[in-house]
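Box 3.1 A note on notation
Throughout this textbook, protein chains are presented in two layers. The first layer is the amino acid sequence; the second is a token string describing backbone geometry. Keep the layers aligned when reading.
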Amino acid sequence: DYSGPIGAPGTLLTKTALDPSIGLSSAGSAYRVLYATTDFNDRPAVSTAAIFLPKKAAPKNGYKVIAWAHGTTGLGDGCTPSALPRSDRDTAYLNHWLDQGYAVVGTDYVGLGTPGLMNYLSSKVQAHSIVDSVKAASHTGLPLSKTWAIVGQSQGASAALNGARWATAYSRGSGLDYRGVVSTGTPANIEHIVMQAGPGFPPVALPAGLNTYAAYIWAGFADARPDLKPMSILTREGRRIVAAAQTKCYAEMHSMVEGAKVRDWFSKPVSSIPGVQGALVNYMSTPYRGYDRPIFMGQGLVDTDVPAPSALSLYAQMVANGQPVEMHVYPTKDHSGTVLASMKDSTPFLARIMR
């Protein structure tokens, strides 16, 4: 528990060696850092991140850096990625980037393992958490290059794109050189679906993954915007689910909402809250213009966690707005499968933009 002064965003507060039991097999060394950033209301906040260095010796200008934006693990402090072993998929993926010679800086996002609740899918919080983790890493004395890119999946894909949209602005004056982003399984335009929720929502049981995300979204949004009283339109069942979402990690939450119908969680439509549409857009939308560096999007067509129309709609908006984006589609891959399948395309992409 850190109680000292926080300082400007990107300030390094503490650095410790990461316990080897939660390390990565391709890492030569690993650290955990606590650093200064900002929360949803632009107040000083702290976040943690793990830093992994490759085994091969650092090049003259240091290892180029990948900021890793993790997917959904949960909102409770017990779900913090830097304090837990990584999933098999994430382990294989992050080891791949280490083997390519990149250092990996993986933020936990504000509120995950640090004071406050993580504002799940909050565009601003996640963007700040990512950029400030790289700023803090540059103050560790580790052999890191100023050249960096962002890679993210699922929740982390929207975090990565928000980080990408604001990377240049948020890192101005730090000497960092932001180059581009890789995002796979990107949730986008979800705020428009959340707007439709309520007792009149179709009486179908969504896949448990989508139910889990819905519970996390409402918990995060209610924490960010208590002035709108988002909890007041929930049924008793809805309040039970959202309370659980504040602490239960993904696997436990997933089994809790298996077969649930989102309509049963609401006593009134989301749209009945005055000003909620603008508030949801402000809270969680992923920008489709204003990017200044290349964007790689990867999407599996049999993804039921973040169905393809989500990312494909964002891609279409980006193309219409002349953004530097390329889309790679994996017809036989699901949400998780896309991560590793995309490496054959994202590896040369990153090598090119990080040159």
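The chain has two domains: 12-188+287-353, 190-283. The first strand starts at residue 12 and ends at 17.
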